[in-house]
């Protein structure tokens, strides 16, 4: 299996190489520290699995995930590898089109298993995320957090808004009209109980959707 590893921390990439060295069926074929570098690799090469961090210096991993889903690499499974270990992040990853979610605190014992599972067409989630999904299916558990009710597209717009992107620029990136983005922004504000972009930013920081 040829892997593309996207993480801006060299120490993490080195650690993954060390962890996966014992599995001869897995090859880290390319590494990227930014979304731009990852996109260059994806234009030139094909991979069996993409291991992706969500916190990157130029864009977010969520942005790259959306780009992948709309590209010739759409069939390539993406395993989100994040420093966040809460179940809400795992839920967002699955709803955004990732094949799996693994926290970096679990990577030492689970990374090879997770890679094999998503490469085979399966899904990999932690026990906490699985329990959350089961609770939502049968009812009786805690209600969804407001951002969990966002559609994947609304989530992408939210993450761009809180990074200060103008509506026109967001519309251009998503290949829709500014009016459509304005409509999505209105829905996001309503769902999150916000009245301004500043409110959205505070919400995103509080719920760790973005790093401060």
Task: Give a quick set of tags describing it.
alpha/beta; 2 domains; Arc Repressor Mutant, subunit A; 5-stranded parallel beta sheet; 5 strands; Rossmann fold; 11% strand; 212 residues
Shape: globular
How many structural domains in the coordinates?
2
> What's the arrangement of strands in the largest beta sheet?
2-1-3-4-5
Instruction: Please name the CATH architecture of the largest domain.
Output: 3-Layer(aba) Sandwich
The CATH topology of the largest domain is given as Rossmann fold
Report the order of strands and helices: EHEHEHEHEHHHHHH
Work out the helix count.
Answer: 10
Helical residue percent band? 40-55%
- How far the N terminus sits from the C terminus, by CA atoms, comes to 35 Å
How many extended strands?
5
User: Average pLDDT, to the nearest integer?
Assistant: 87
The biggest sheet, with number of strands, parallel, antiparallel or mixed sense and barrel status, is:
5 strands, parallel
CATH class of the largest domain equals Alpha Beta
